[in-house]
Design goal:
Number of domains: 1
Radius of gyration: 20 Å
Structural class: mainly alpha
CATH architecture: Orthogonal Bundle
Low-confidence stretches: none
Order of helices and strands: HHHHEEHHHHHHHHHHH
Strand order of the largest sheet: 1-2
Mean pLDDT: 92
Number of strands: 2
Number of helices: 15
CATH superfamily: Farnesyl Diphosphate Synthase
CATH topology: Farnesyl Diphosphate Synthase
């Protein structure tokens, strides 16, 4: 991870001073680095001894960071991980344009890697991320959202990058196609579990614990798994959510009322149980003949994604 951090700093360099300033701010703002960590662990799982995975792990982190910069602008968020978001400090224009720089720098790094298969993978992943964001936007206040539709958004806008991280690790390590597919699916399941926990925490946690506003998803028109489950058994909640959608946001008292009602209907519990089922599925995909210690670490990472308090 130290090598990844060094590579991040090297590739944030630009004679346009705002680029390294904004890039360093968001990259250094306390993220979990789960995606590059997943890439590194997967190479260790198979005993890879080279260095090629380091810049590729940074590619994954740059694409993720670029998507965060854009997301905060789209969501009009002024806080990330308990600190002012980049757009809150430098403004929306700078955040969008530095996000563009990170996307383009990631593709420069993939060209330098020289593997067309890897370039194709990350081009497809970046396209899927963009589609996922647009799909989520198109489904703003989509009150008939089903569980399957919710999972489709999660897979496209979040889990696909986890999947790419573990697939990169398997490909760099020279694994056969069946193992590469299993590791890509491991990352996908882990990513779904991670996002489902994020959705549960929006109804369960307090802002100080998670480092961002809570009770915010519905306010932005995001119909997530806890709310879908709770509305299916609570007509009064469904009616209140319809009224919020008609207004295009919360009135006074809506935020806490909805959060309390979702918890009363155990929507958060339902969502966390589904996250744990994805984590359990992920663990079954780890190859039994791989490094035992690293396998245990990756199983622990899957468990953390489905049980994390923040």
């Amino acid at each position: 991870m130290q090598a990844v951090d060094d590579c991040i700093r090297d590739n944030l360099q630009s004679d346009v001073t705002m680029i390294p300033a904004v890039g360093s701010y968001i990259v250094s703002s306390g993220g979990k680095r789960l995606r590059p960590l997943l890439c590194l662990l997967t190479t260790k799982l198979f005993g890879y001894q080279g260095e090629r995975h380091i810049p590729l792990a940074v590619v994954v982190e740059f694409i993720h960071t670029a998507s965060l910069l854009h997301d905060d602008v789209v969501d009009a968020s002024d806080q990330r991980r308990g600190t002012p978001s980049a757009n809150g400090v430098w403004g929306n224009q700078a955040s969008v344009l530095v996000g563009d720089f990170l996307f383009s720098r990631a593709f420069q790094m993939m060209v330098a890697d020289g593997d067309m298969q890897m370039l194709r993978l990350m081009a497809d992943v970046t396209n899927a991320l963009a589609e996922g964001e647009v799909l989520q936007l198109a489904r703003t206040f989509h009150l008939e959202m089903t569980e399957d539709e919710c999972l489709e958004v999660i897979e496209r806008k979040t889990a696909v990058l986890f999947s790419a991280a573990s697939e990169i690790g398997a490909r760099v390590s020279g694994q056969r196609d069946a193992v590469v597919r299993d590791m890509a699916e491991f990352g996908m399941c882990l990513g779904v579990a991670f996002q489902l926990m994020d959705d549960a925490l929006d109804y369960l946690a307090d802002a100080e614990a998670v480092g961002k506003p809570v009770g915010h998803d519905l306010e932005e028109g995001k119909i997530t798994m806890p709310l879908i489950h709770a509305m299916s058994t609570d007509g009064e909640l469904a009616a209140r959510v319809h009224a919020i959608a008609d207004r295009g946001g919360y009135a006074e008292g809506d935020r806490e009322w909805v959060r309390d009602r979702v918890r009363a209907q155990r929507g958060d519990v339902f969502c966390m149980e589904k996250a744990r089922s994805y984590a359990e599925r992920a663990k079954t995909l780890l190859p039994p003949d791989a490094d035992t210690g690293v396998r245990r670490l990756m199983a622990g990472l899957a468990d953390f994604s489905a049980k994390r308090p923040f």
